[in-house]
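Here comes an entry:

___
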Amino acid sequence: MNHRVPVAATTIPRRRTSVGASRDFVTGVLIEWELHTLVEDIKVCVSELATNALLHGAPPGHEFCVGLHRGEELVRLEVRDSGPGRPAVQYPDDDAGSGRGLHLVSELADDFVVDDHVVGKTVWLVLRTSAALDRNPLGASGSQAGPPPTPRRKPDVRP
């Protein structure tokens, strides 16, 4: 079986500062990788996933893991915890005070998946890098080199 190993990973202890530590970790890695255009979207996504791991996934006294994997045109963010349950996108009432996080993640990400394990789960998503989004469809002469670009869609990027 072929499993992706994150290029950068850290374990985060379950405490009040966990979500901020997760944001700081991914920000530092993305800046090091010079993927500045992804920082804000991935910070929002890791905030939501880390909050879910903290509130629903990592039992007291445990940790959760945050990992990033950089592909040629994609960055994969993973949050793994040891807790039971399977997170799902919810559609709360307008006056509900919570329940929108995974919906937001699914809208920002190009793909969003939950993998179950014997113990716990990994929630992961991918975002295309700016190089993949900003390809210029025009040739050097300014004429169109091929068919018009297709709208951004979620690719199937499961490992």
